[in-house]
Amino acid sequence: MTLWLIVIIASLACLSLKIAGYLVPASLLEKPAPARIANLLTVALLAALIAVQTLGSGNRIVIDARLPALAVAAVLLALRVPFIVVVIAAAAVAALIRAVF
Amino acid sequence: MARTEPGPSEDDQAADDQAADDQAVSRASRWNTDDLATARKGVAVGLAAAAYGISYGALAVAAGLDVWQTCVMSLLMFTGGSQFALVGVIATGGVAAGPAAIASAAILGIRNGIYGIRVAPIIGAGRWRRFAAAWVTIDESSAVATSQPTLRSQRLGFWVTALSVFIGWNLTSLLGALIGNALGDVRVYGLDAAAAAAFLGLLWPRLRQLQTIAVAAAAAVIAAATTPVLIPGLPVLVAGIVAVIVGGFNWFGSPSPQLDPPGIPT
Fold it and tell me: Which residue would you say has higher pLDDT here, A84 or B11?
C-alpha cells in the first residue's frame, strides 16, 4: 500500500460518509443508540489520539516535553482562551522545554 | 424555493431584478444586521480553522507525506480531525500502518455524516447544491448553521462558514507543508505538542456530560496501555470499542444524546 493509495482511499471514505448523511432518512437520528455511539466514537478517538500523540513514541510510552505542553493547553482551554492561542502556547511550551533541557 | 446561493456578491444587483418573485426578493434583499453578524461569525470561525491548518500542513510533511498529498487531503477529505488522525498514525507507524490510518480517519469522519442528517433540511433541494454542501459539512459549518435562529441565517451561516474554512484551510495547509519542509525537525518547534493540543481543543467542548468524560478517560487509558503491545495505529481503534460498549448499553448516560455539533472554539 503506497502513501498515495492511503491518502486517496481515506479521503474518499470521509467524503462518502459526508454524502451518506444527506442520503439517509432523518428518522435514523430518532433511534438513540446509533447516534449516541457515533457521538461517543468521536470522543473516544479524539481522547485516544491525544494519549498517543502526547505519550507515544513508536511502540514506547515516554514522558517528555509534550505532557507539560498538553497540561498548559488544558488549563488555557478551561480559562476559555481562544483555540489558536492554546495551540500556539502548547507548541511554545514544548519548544521552550526542549531548548532549555 | 429560490435557487440562488446566499452570498455577498449577488445581493446588490439582484435585489431590483427579481422583484416579481416574492421568495427571491426575501432571499436576495440587502443584508440586515443579523446577516452581517452571522457572516462575521462564519468568517471568524474560518480564520481560526485556517490558523491551525498551518500545523496540519507542517505535521503532514513531517510524517512523510509530500506537499501534494498534504494538499489533496485538505481538498478532498476536508475534515481536520480525520486529517490529523491519519497523519498521526502514519507518523508513528509509517506506510505499514496504512489500514489503521484509513480506519481512524474514517471513524472520525462518521460524525460529519451525522451533521449531514441535521443540516440537510437547511440546505434545501438540488443535487449539485447538496453535493457541494456535503463536501463542506464539518464541525464548523454545522455548528454555525445549527446555532442560528432562522432558516435564512442558518443557510447563510452554513455557506459563509464552509467557504471561509475551505479557502483558509486549504491555503494554510499548503503554507504549513512548505514551512514544514523548510523547518526540518518540527519537534524543535513543538509542533508535535501542538497536534495533541489541537485534538484537545476539538474534544474539550464535548466533555459536558458524565458519559463523554468517562468514555474519553477510558479511551485515553486504553490507547496508552496498548501502545507497547499493538502495532502503531491499532491502539486508537481499540480505544474506540469503549464508545460502542458504553454507547450501546448507555452506561453513565442521560436520556437525550448530544446530537448537535459542539460549540467551536475560536
Answer: A84
